[in-house]
Amino acid sequence: MNKIFEKLTFFRGPHTSGSQAQKEDESDPANKITTVFIHYGVNSKVEIKIPENLQKHLTCAWLLEETINKIKKAGGDLNLRDENATIVTLKTKNNDYAVDHLLNDPKQDLRFLRGGTILEPYYGVNTRCLDEFGNKVELSDFEIETKLGYGAFSNVYLGKIPD
Questions:
Q1: 37 and 26 in one domain?
Q2: What pLDDT was estimated at residue 102?
Q3: Percentage of residues in the chain with pLDDT exceeding 90?
Q4: CA 21/CA 3 separation, integer angstroms
């Protein structure tokens, strides 16, 4: 409520001059922009500018989509690590786990991001489709490394798919 009153000239009082009023309007959150840097590759980066008044409306899904579009527009290669890799989410470069957790929620708004945050893409690898195994996956489809444990209805094994 106070912010509404501050914008009205007659609530500023007689001590406020016109130049001071302009400075107050420049510090308005609607004019502030949060800049987030996306580092990908060795020396490649893009920056995304987010107006602070839109942070509660924009989501992490939007940020990921915007990142992919900016990398494409910059001529960057989205699949830097592996031909089957794709960008699945963003993570902080300094491993801030709380922010990383929030970035993984596509519906999360962007109010948690601070200006100057450095993010990097996290790549997921497309795995083999179950169609390669036929209709049903069986224990014989894997090379068993060791038995990890057992439960009332099953056994748990560590295994790998043979090449």
A1: no
A2: 93
A3: 39
A4: 13
Whether residue 63 is found in the same domain as residue 99? yes
**Paired residues of 150 in beta bridges:** 155
Convert the chain into a string of H (helix), E (strand) and C (coil).
Answer: CHHHHHHCHHHCCCCCCHHHHHHHHHCCCCCCEEEEEEEECCCEEEEEEEEHHHCCCCEHHHHHHHHHHHHHHCCCCCCCCCCCEEEEEEEECCCCHHHHHHHCCCCCECCCCCCCCEEEEEEEECCCCHHHHCCCCCHHHCEEEEEEEECCCCEEEEEECCC
The pTM for the full model equals 0.59
Which stretches in the chain have pLDDT values below 70? 1-30, 76-85, 125-135
Q: Provide the residue range defining the domain that includes 54.
A: 32-125
